[in-house]
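Database export, one record per block. Field names are fixed; values are copied verbatim from the stored entry.
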Amino acid sequence: MTMVDKILNLLDDAKNNIKNQAENISASAKNQYEKMVEDWIKIIPQIEESGLQLYSFSFSASLNPSIDAEFRGKCVDFPLGKWEELISLNEKNKSLALVYNTLKSTFKMYHKIKPEMPEDFYLRLRIKLSPEIRVYIGEPPIA
């Protein structure tokens, strides 16, 4: 076997090892993503139980798939104390506590800008490899 053949064999072995590792990482990432999505999907009914209305749900298939869930609530039904109570009741569920903390923080910041709250607020969850939580007080933007 010539030196060139040995180098080609080494390169072929390295390529196969990289391919196998990539497949293992891909399978692991897929399992991790599926578990994360399942965990977030479970909290949607819990958010509804707290008094918010789910009005939009979508799934986007892509290299970075995502699920969007949008909720509507009445500002008058959610004083700051209610957010604190919901956070306290759900402190063991990190995802749900994160949602309620984001809502509480948004309400507090909005009160610093305007003392009067509009009638409605909107919550958008975008569940993807990096979950995204957005809160809109007043009319949500299009898109």
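Remark 1: The beta strands are 53-60, 66-74, 120-127, 132-137.
Remark 2: The helical segments are 3-49, 80-89, 94-113.
End of record.
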